[in-house]
Amino acid sequence: MVEFRIDRRSGVATYVQIVRQVQQALRLGLLEPGDKLPTAREVVEATAVNPNTVLKAYRELEREGLVEARRGLGTFVRRSLGGVPADSPYAVELADWTRRARRAGLEREDVAALFAAALDREFPEGDG
């Protein structure tokens, strides 16, 4: 099951954070078709966000065809986003690099900027 982490200082709408975290879990294989998402009540209890925010995120995921709500049963994953498993060599290498960057004194924002710049170089706009 996915555990949502909400960063209220990020400037990113809370429902978007929930959507992105589900998408990331789908890409990493942490959520698979048939898996049940936490109920809105469970998310509210864990994150202290408004229930309507959780429902908005789940509706967006449903609109994208990633999940389906089953009345009385909950919200279930419909399809994966492929991607790479969380335990792939790429994930391990990236985690090692991130630890080295942190030990070298880089802040989270520094690492994010470096990573974003590398992504922009390797995956120019419109290059999938």
Automatic annotation (TrEMBL):
Q: Which domain of life is it from?
A: Bacteria
Keyword list, A-Z: DNA-binding, Transcription, Transcription regulation
Question: Per its UniProt record, what Gene3D superfamilies does this chain match?
Answer: Winged helix-like DNA-binding domain superfamily/Winged helix DNA-binding domain
User: In its keyword annotation, does this UniProt entry include Transcription regulation?
Assistant: yes
Question: Which parts of the sequence belong to the HTH gntR-type domain?
Answer: 12-80
InterPro entries (UniProt xref): Tscrpt_reg_HTH_GntR, WH-like_DNA-bd_sf, WH_DNA-bd_sf
Keyword Cell inner membrane part of the UniProt annotation = no
Alphabetical list of Pfam families matching this protein = GntR
PANTHER family, sorted: GNTR-FAMILY TRANSCRIPTIONAL REGULATOR, HTH-TYPE TRANSCRIPTIONAL REPRESSOR YTRA
Identification of the protein by name: GntR family transcriptional regulator
